[in-house]
Specification:
35 helices, 11% strand, six-stranded parallel sheet, alpha/beta, single chain, 999 residues
C-alpha cells in the first residue's frame, strides 16, 4: 500500500450541517460496496458527536446501511474515556493503566492537607478538596501540552512574582513531585498521560502497518500536540481522512497570520501576544502542530440539508475579526454582513427568557420533521426552559445534565448532612423532615402532620445544639405549648431514635468509613429507599459506594461542620443526565455537547457576559506569568473556544439568539459576541418581534385586578368575640388586623431560628417576674438565680444566652432594686399576672395586669412590664394605647380576683435603656405632669372607657367595616400586611379608568 504524499484533510463550514454532510459524503464514497462502510472506522470527539453522526446515517439511508465502526477520542471535561477501538489490548499492552479519577482526587486532597499542616498553614478539608481539583486540572494541562516536571523546576521567574505566587509555585512543585512518586509506586499514570501514549502508539502502529480499511477523524478540534500528531498520521494514511469543523477558509491570509502564535523576536526576545480569544486561534494552532498549511485544506464535497447559506459563514468571519481589523465593518457590503435567518430576542429577565425560548421551540415543533436545538451554558436557565416545556408535555433531554447537588436526591442528602452535623438547627432540620423524599409512601401525610406540629414548637429563637436541645423544648414549663408537647412527644421519641446514631457518627466519634455507612443507612431509613431511585438516586448511591470503598483515602481531619460543604463540592461536579427517551425532535445542550449537532432551528440562550462566554476562573496554583513561561494556554483561550461554539451553532438555517437584561443578581451585560454581531450588522440583524408578545400574553389575566384598601364587614354573629384590653388598641388603629386575628382566628407565628423578638422576650420577662412574685415573694436575691434557671429550662441557644442574657439580667436587677426601694417607702405589691374583667358598653372586657401595687395613699397602681420602649403619651391621649386605663377600669368597676379600688397610678416599667442613660430600666407614665401630652390621672380611666365604648359601638355592636391600616401611624406591626396585600394599595393613588390604554 503506497504512502500518500499529500494530506487528505477537509473542512465542513459552519453553515454546512456537519453531521449530515459527513454522513452523506461517506455514503457517496464508500456505500457502493455493501460492506464498504461497515469495514471503516470513524473517529469522533465525544459520545454526543457519535450519536449525532449515527442519527445522520439513519436519516440518509434509504434502504438501510451497515454503518462504520465509530470510536471517540474521549473528553476529559465530559469525563469520557477513549473508545475501545483506540484502546484495544494490542495498542495499550505496554502502557500503564490510568489511575481512577476519584482515587486521584482523594489522594491529592490528602497530600495538600498534610503538606499545608506541615507548613503550619492548616486548611479545611473542603478547601483542600477544591485545591486538589484545581491542581489536577493544571497537571492535566501540563501533560496535554507535554510540559514535564523538569520544565516546571527549571523556570526562573520567582524574583518577578509576589510572595503569594512564590508560595503557590513552591507548593505546586512539592505536590507534583510527591504525586509522581506515588504514581510510580502504584504502577499507574494520569489519564491525560495515558491518552497521549495511546495516540502515539496508534501513530506508531499505523505508520508501520496502515489499516486496510478507511479511517476518518471527524470533528476533532483539540490542539493538543499528541492529537495533532494523531490527526496528521491519519491524514497521510493511504485510506485516511481528517474532516475539520468550522475552519474559516474565507479569512484573508494576512488576517490568518495575525492570529499567532508568534515566535520570539530575534533581537529583543519579545513575543507578540497571540489572539487566543479569536474563534479560529485553536484551529490555527492545531494546523501548525500538524504541519499543515491552511491552503492544503479541501472543502468536503457534500453539504448538510439543514445548513444555512454560505454567506452566513462570510458574515461570521467578518463579525469575529480581530479588534485591529473591525474598522473595515464600515466598508462591508450588505452581502458580506448578512445574517439572514438569524434573529435576536432581549427578555426583561431570565424567567421571561426561558418562557420565550420554550414558546419558540413549541412553535417550531408544530412543523413536521422540524428539529430544535436549544444551546446554553447556563444550567439554571436550561432547567427553567425544560420546566416551561413541560406545560405542553414536551420532555427535552438536557444532555449537559444538572448537578447532583441541585436534584431532589442531592438536596435531600446535603440537607441531611447540614442538619446532623450542625447540631440540628431548626431551619435545616425542619427542611430535612419536610423533604418530599422523607417517608415517601402511605404514611407521609401523618408524618407531615407531626412535622408541622414540631414546626410550631420550634419557632422562635434557636434552642440549644443537638437533639438534647430539642428535647428541652418538650420539657419546658411554657403553659401555652403544654397540650402540643404532650401530643407530639411519643412521635418525637421515635424520630430521635432514628437520628441518634447519625448524631454520634457525625459528631466525630466514629471512623470515616463508619460515618459514611451510617449516613447511607439514615438516608435509607428516612426515605424508605426512595432516595436511591431514578438516575440521580443511582448516581448518589454509586458515589457513596465509591466513597465507602475509598474510606482510607478520606480527609486527614475534618470537623463536623465541614462535612456538608465537603460533600457538596463533590455533588456539584457530578452531572445527572436523563436517560434517552425525551422528545425526539428537541434537545437541550451545553456548549460541549452541542458541538457537531445540527437542527432546523437553533436557539442560543444566555448570551450574557459571565454566561456565554463564561467567566474566567483564575488558576489558584500557577501565576499567569508562570503559565506563560511554561507555554500553557492562557485562561482567556476559553473565550475563543466559546466563540467557536457560537459560530458552529449559528450554522443552522434558522437561529435565534436570546439574552436577559437582568439575571438573579441584577442587571446583566450583553455578551461581547452578541455586541459584535449587532455592531457589524446594525439594523439588518432582525429582532424576533412576536416572541416577547407571546410571553407577555400567555400568562396574562384578561383584565388587571385593582386592589383597594381591604374593609371586610363581618356579620353580627361573627363580631361577637371576646375582647381583651390588649386587643382594643389593635381594633382602633388597624381593624383589619383585629378581624384577621380574632374573627378569622389567624394567629401570627414567630420565625424559624429567629432573633429574640419583643413578644418572646416579653414572655420570658413576665414568666420570670410572675414566679418571682408568687414563689419568692419578691426576694431581691432570688431573681437572678430564677432568671438563669428559667433560661436553661427554655433550652435556649448558648449564643443567644451570651448575647441577650446580660441585658436581661441588668433589667431584672433594676426591677428587683426598684421594688425593694418602693416597699421601703410604703408601696406594697399585691397581685402579679392577675386576670380581671369588667362590663363596658354592654360587653365583657377582660385583661391581665402584670402587677398591681397598693400605693402609700391607699390607691392602686397598675404596672405593665415592657422589654422595649413604652407607648408614647401622645398615643395614649389620642386613644390608641388604652391598656393601662382599661386595666384601671377593671380595678375600679370590675374585679381583679377580689381586689378593687381607686386606680391612681399608671406605670410602664421598661427594661430597655432610656435616652442617653447607661443603665437598663426606667419607669414611664402617661400621667407625668411634665409631659405636654399627659392625661390627668383622675381622667385616665374615664378617657379609656370613652374611647373603647366608641370602638365597641362601631365594630363589635355596630356594622362599621374593619378597614385595613385605618391609622397606620399607630399600627406598626406587620403580622397581617401580606394578608391585606398592603404593598398593592398602600400609598398608591387611584388609577384613572383610561390609564391602561396608555400603558
Amino acid at each position: 500500500m503506497s504512502k500518500r504524499l499529500q494530506p487528505a484533510i477537509y473542512n465542513i463550514a459552519a453553515h454546512g450541517g456537519f453531521a449530515d454532510a459527513l454522513a452523506q459524503g461517506l455514503i457517496d464514497r464508500f456505500a457502493k460496496d455493501p460492506l464498504g462502510l461497515a469495514s471503516g472506522l470513524v473517529i469522533l470527539p465525544n459520545n454526543r458527536a457519535r450519536r449525532a453522526v449515527h442519527d445522520a446515517f439513519v436519516r440518509l439511508s434509504e434502504d438501510g446501511l451497515l454503518l462504520p465502526q465509530m470510536a471517540v477520542i474521549g473528553d476529559l471535561e465530559l469525563d469520557e474515556s477513549i473508545g475501545v477501538a483506540l484502546d484495544s489490548g494490542e495498542l495499550s499492552l505496554d502502557i500503564p493503566p490510568a489511575i481512577d479519577p476519584l482515587d486521584r482526587l482523594l489522594m491529592l486532597a490528602r497530600m495538600i492537607e498534610t503538606e499545608s499542616a506541615a507548613r503550619r498553614q492548616p486548611m479545611l478539608s473542603k478547601e483542600a478538596l477544591r485545591l486538589a481539583r484545581a491542581f489536577a486540572l493544571t497537571l492535566d494541562q501540563l501533560t496535554i501540552e507535554e510540559i514535564g516536571l523538569k520544565d516546571l523546576f527549571e523556570i526562573d521567574v520567582e524574583p518577578e512574582l509576589s510572595g503569594h505566587w512564590q508560595n503557590s509555585l513552591s507548593f505546586f512543585r512539592v505536590i507534583a513531585e510527591k504525586w509522581q512518586t506515588r504514581l510510580s509506586e502504584l504502577g499507574a499514570v494520569d489519564e491525560a498521560a495515558r491518552r497521549n501514549a495511546l495516540f502515539d502508539q496508534s501513530v506508531k502502529v499505523w505508520k508501520s502497518e496502515p489499516p486496510p480499511h478507511f479511517v476518518v477523524a471527524a470533528g476533532i478540534t483539540t490542539s493538543a500536540p499528541a492529537i495533532a500528531r494523531f490527526l496528521r498520521a491519519i491524514a497521510f494514511l493511504p485510506t485516511g481522512m481528517v474532516v475539520l469543523p468550522d475552519l474559516d477558509l474565507v479569512m484573508a491570509d494576512e488576517e490568518w497570520e495575525m492570529l499567532g502564535p508568534f515566535k520570539p523576536d530575534a533581537e529583543t526576545g519579545h513575543v507578540k501576544r497571540a489572539q487566543e480569544t479569536h474563534p479560529q486561534y485553536h484551529m490555527k494552532l492545531l494546523l501548525e502542530r500538524m504541519s499543515i498549511a491552511r491552503g492544503e485544506i479541501m472543502r468536503w464535497p457534500r453539504t448538510g440539508i439543514s445548513g444555512a447559506a454560505a454567506k452566513r459563514s462570510r458574515a461570521l468571519s467578518n463579525a469575529f475579526a480581530i479588534p485591529k481589523l473591525t474598522s473595515r465593518w464600515q466598508s462591508l457590503g450588505a452581502d458580506q454582513r448578512s445574517l439572514a435567518g438569524v434573529q435576536t430576542v432581549e427578555a426583561r429577565n431570565s424567567a421571561e427568557e426561558a418562557q420565550i425560548v420554550a414558546l419558540l421551540a413549541r412553535e417550531a415543533l408544530e412543523m413536521p420533521e422540524r428539529r430544535v436545538a436549544i444551546i446554553t451554558p447556563d444550567r439554571a436557565l436550561a432547567g427553567r426552559i425544560s420546566a416551561h416545556l413541560q406545560r405542553w408535555m414536551i420532555n427535552a433531554d438536557d444532555t449537559a445534565g444538572q448537578p447532583l447537588s441541585k436534584k431532589p436526591e442531592g438536596i435531600f442528602f446535603l440537607a441531611l448532612l447540614s442538619a446532623t452535623t450542625d447540631g440540628f438547627p431548626p431551619a435545616e432540620f425542619l427542611s430535612l423532615l419536610k423533604h418530599p423524599l422523607v417517608r415517601a409512601g402511605d404514611d407521609r401525610l401523618e408524618w407531615l402532620n407531626n412535622v408541622r406540629k414540631l414546626d410550631l414548637l420550634m419557632r422562635g429563637p434557636r434552642p440549644a445544639p443537638g437533639l438534647a436541645g430539642i428535647d428541652g423544648l418538650f420539657h419546658s414549663n411554657d403553659r401555652r405549648t403544654q397540650a402540643l408537647r404532650n401530643q407530639l412527644l411519643p412521635w418525637w421519641e421515635g424520630v430521635r431514635e432514628v437520628f441518634t446514631p447519625a448524631a454520634i457518627a457525625l459528631g466525630g466519634t466514629m471512623s470515616w468509613a463508619a460515618m459514611l455507612d451510617e449516613i447511607r443507612q439514615l438516608a435509607e431509613r428516612l426515605t424508605n429507599g426512595q432516595v436511591w431511585a431514578g438516575p440521580a438516586g443511582r448516581q448518589l448511591a454509586d458515589f457513596l459506594s465509591d466513597m465507602e470503598e475509598r474510606a482510607g483515602l478520606g480527609p486527614v481531619k475534618i470537623q463536623p461542620q465541614e462535612i456538608a460543604g465537603y460533600f457538596e463540592t463533590y455533588l456539584s461536579d457530578i452531572p445527572v443526565r436523563p436517560p434517552y427517551g425525551g422528545h425526539p425532535r428537541i434537545a437541550l445542550y451545553g456548549l460541549l455537547e452541542a458541538r457537531l449537532q445540527q437542527a432546523d432551528l437553533v436557539i442560543c440562550c444566555g448570551l450574557n457576559e459571565g454566561s456565554w462566554p463564561q467567566a474566567i476562573t483564575p488558576d489558584p496554583w500557577l501565576a499567569p506569568m508562570v503559565r506563560k513561561s511554561l507555554g500553557l494556554p492562557a485562561q482567556e483561550r476559553q473565550i475563543g473556544l466559546s466563540a467557536h461554539d457560537l459560530v458552529g451553532a449559528m450554522g443552522g438555517q434558522n437561529v435565534v439568539l436570546t439574552r436577559a437584561q437582568r439575571d438573579g443578581s441584577g442587571p446583566a451585560i450583553a455578551s461581547r459576541f452578541l455586541l459584535r454581531l449587532k455592531a457589524m450588522c446594525g439594523e439588518s440583524l432582525k429582532e424576533h418581534t412576536t416572541a416577547q408578545d407571546w410571553a407577555s400574553r400567555i400568562d396574562k389575566p384578561e383584565a388587571s385586578l385593582r386592589i383597594g384598601q381591604p374593609a371586610p364587614a363581618p356579620t353580627v354573629d361573627q363580631r361577637k368575640v371576646k375582647l381583651s384590653v390588649t386587643n382594643v388598641d389593635r381594633l382602633i388603629a388597624d381593624p383589619f388586623a383585629f378581624y384577621a386575628a380574632k374573627i378569622m382566628g389567624l394567629g401570627s407565628l414567630d420565625m424559624i431560628d429567629a432573633e429574640p423578638s419583643a413578644a418572646w422576650r416579653g414572655t420570658i420577662i413576665h414568666d420570670i417576674l410572675d414566679r418571682w412574685a408568687k414563689e419568692d415573694e419578691y426576694d431581691p436575691d432570688a431573681l437572678k438565680k430564677r432568671a438563669l434557671a428559667f433560661l436553661n429550662e427554655r433550652s435556649s441557644h448558648p449564643l443567644m444566652r451570651t448575647l441577650w442574657a446580660p441585658r436581661l439580667m441588668e433589667g431584672l436587677l433594676w426591677v428587683s432594686d426598684t421594688v425593694a426601694q418602693q416597699r421601703t417607702d410604703g408601696r406594697t405589691p399585691l397581685k402579679s399576672e392577675q386576670i380581671g374583667s369588667v362590663t363596658v358598653a354592654g360587653i365583657d372586657l377582660f385583661g391581665i395586669a402584670d402587677r398591681i401595687d397598693r400605693m402609700p395613699d391607699g390607691g392602686l397602681a397598675i404596672v405593665d412590664y415592657k422589654t422595649g420602649g413604652p407607648p408614647s403619651n401622645k398615643s395614649v391621649k389620642e386613644g390608641f394605647s388604652l391598656q393601662l386605663g382599661l386595666l384601671g377600669a377593671i380595678a375600679e368597676k370590675g374585679d381583679f380576683g377580689g381586689l378593687s379600688g381607686k386606680a391612681t397610678g399608671f406605670e410602664y416599667w421598661s427594661l430597655a435603656k432610656q435616652g442617653g442613660k447607661d443603665r437598663f430600666g426606667y419607669i414611664a407614665t402617661p400621667t407625668n405632669p411634665r409631659s405636654p401630652d399627659r392625661v390627668d390621672a383622675n381622667e385616665m380611666v374615664d378617657h379609656a372607657v370613652t374611647e373603647v365604648t366608641k370602638a365597641v359601638n362601631s365594630y363589635i355592636l355596630g356594622k362599621e367595616p374593619m378597614t385595613a391600616k385605618l391609622h397606620p401611624e399607630y399600627a406598626p406591626y406587620a403580622d397581617y400586611d401580606q394578608l391585606m396585600r398592603l404593598e398593592e394599595w398602600y400609598g398608591r393613588a387611584d388609577i384613572p379608568d383610561d390609564a391602561s390604554e396608555h400603558e
